[in-house]
Amino acid sequence: MPDHHSxxxxxxxxLQTAGLLSATLAxxxxxxxxxxRAQTPAPTKGGHLVLGLDTASSSDRLDPAFYxxxxxxxxxxxxxxxxxxxxxxxxxxxxLAESWDAATPDASKWVFKLRKGVQFHNGKELTAQDVVYSLxxxxxxxxxxxxxxxxxxxxxxxxSDTHEVTITLNAGNADFPAALVDYHMGIGPxxxxxxxxxxxxxxxxxxxxxxxxxxxxxxxxxWASDRGHVDSVETIAMSDATARMAALLSGQxxxxxxxxxxAVSRLTSRPGVQLLxxxxxxxxxxPMRVDTAPYDNVDLRLALKYAIDREELQKxxxxxxxxxxxxxxxASWNPYFAxxxxxxxxxxxxxxxxxxxxxxxxxxQLSVSDNGFPGSVDAAQLFQASAAKAGITLDVERVPSxxxxxxxxxxxxxxxxxxxxxxxxxAMLSLIFQSDAPWNETAWKDEAFDKLLAAARVELDESKRKxxxxxxxxxxxxxxxxIIPLFVDNLxxxxxxxxxxxxxPGGGDLSGYRIAERVWLNA
Length: 523
Fold this sequence. Notes:
The chain is α+β, with helices and mostly antiparallel strands. Among the domains are: 15-79 and 197-279 and 490-521, D-Maltodextrin-Binding Protein, domain 2 (3-Layer(aba) Sandwich); 84-196, Alpha-Beta Complex (Dipeptide-binding Protein, domain 1). It has helices at residues 15-27, 70-79, 128-136, 241-250, 264-268, 298-306, 310-318, 348-357, 376-388, 404-407, 425-432, 447-458, 462-479, 509-512, 515-518, and strands at 30-31, 48-53, 84-86, 92-94, 97-102, 109-114, 154-161, 164-169, 203-209, 213-218, 232-237, 255-256, 273-287, 323-324, 365-368, 395-398, 417-420, 482-495, 498-499, 520-521. Strands 1, 2, 9, 10, 11, 12, 13, 14, 17 and 18 form a 10-stranded mixed β-sheet that branches. The protein has a 4-stranded antiparallel β-sheet with strand order 5-6-8-7, with helices on one face. A two-stranded antiparallel sheet has the order 3-4. Helix 7 packs antiparallel against helix 9 (376-388). The chain is globular and about 65 Å long.
C-alpha cells in the first residue's frame, strides 16, 4: 500500500558494498542535493525519458485518491500539480498557489492565492472552484481516499475569489498547509473524472495500462518554465530488481528505483551510472492490528518488539545505509524527534517475559511480500529466527506481490509495510495513527492520543508543542502496534545522461516523485 511508500531490500551482509558506498560518496559518484554539488549546467530540452519502476499493480488508477505506492506517485505527478510542494531545502514552496497565509490568529483558517493563467490539459483555466472540487474529492463519510486523513480537520473549503481558496479547520493547525503537498492532493478540473488523468502537470497522458506502463508527452502550456524539459516520458512497470538493473545497464531505461544495496557494487563499477540517494526518507515496518487477537495485547506487542534484531536487519538489508528504528515514526532529522527515548534493543529474555505475560499465544502469522517493502521476505525470515530464540514461534506467510495493497494490507492482522516519511510530525502521525485515519494500518484508536495530537496543532509555544510531540512518540513506542525496525535511505540509479536530479528532504524518493518534470537528458 501505502503511501505509502517507497523502498529497499535483501538479505546477507556485504561489507565490501558498504565500503564502496563510502568511496562513492567521497569521489562524487553519488549524486548529491543541488546545494552540495558543483553548479548544475543549464537544462537541455527534448528527448524521451524512460523510467523503470516497481510497485505497479494491475489495480492502479489515475485518480490520486487511490495512489498507494511510488509507481503511481511518479506517474501522478507527471499529470497533476498540488497547491503546494516541498523545495530542495525541505521547506514548503508554492505550486498552484503563489502565496498562503493564516487568516486567523489561531491558524484555524487559511487563505491560498492561486496562480493566474494556469491551464488544464483540456484547455480550461484553473480557478479556485477547481481546487475546492479536487480537495473535497477526498472528504466525506463515504470517501475511501488515502488523502482523507489529511483533511479530517477541515470543516469548509470555499472559493473566496476567482483565484483564492479559503479553508476553515475545526481547530487551529500551524502545520496544515503541509497537508496539501501530499500526492493524493492532485488538482483536476471542477466536475471532472480524475481517472482520465486531466491535470495541470508538465505532461499530458497519452496511454495508461495499469501494471504495465504509462506514456505521457510534454505539456506545451505548462505554467512552470523551469520544469518539464523532456518531450515525453515512458514509465514502465518493472517489479523485479534484477530486471530493473539490467534495463538500466543496457540503456533500455534512464532511471530505476529501489536499488538494492547489495547491487550497488555492480552498478557503480560500470561506467555511465550514477547513484541517487535520499537520506532517511522511508520507514520499513511490520504493523500489527491492535483490534485483533493476539495483537490486542500490549505485552504481546512488546514481546515482538523485543524479539526483532534490528542491527542484524540493518546489516543484512541496508548494507551500511539507513538507520535503526525504534518503533517511532518520526525520523531523526525532524525537529520534533524525541531523541531521549532509549533505543529498544534485541532482548530475547525480555521478549520471552512479555510473551509469557501475554499468555504465550499461538497463531502469530506474518504475511509478507516484497511489495510490502523490498527485502521484507528476507526480513521476515530473520525476524522468525530471532523470535525463535525468545521462544516465540512466528509463521511467515509469503503472499503474492500483485494486489498486495488491496488484498493483504489492512486485511491481514500482521504484515509488512513501508511509508514515505512526511515533512511534519503532524502529517506523519495523523496519516497513520489518528483514530479515524483511513490508512490507520494498526487500527490504533486511543482517545488520549487523539487529544494530544489535536493539542499539538494549536499550541503556539514551541517548547510546549515539542513536549506534546515527545509524549505522543513515547506512547507509540511503548504501546503502539507498529514495529519500525529501520529507516531507509532511498537508493535509485540513473544513466549519466540524466541531469538536474535533486533530493527533497521529507518528500520521498525520486525528487519527491517529481523526477520526470525536474530532470533532463544530456546528449
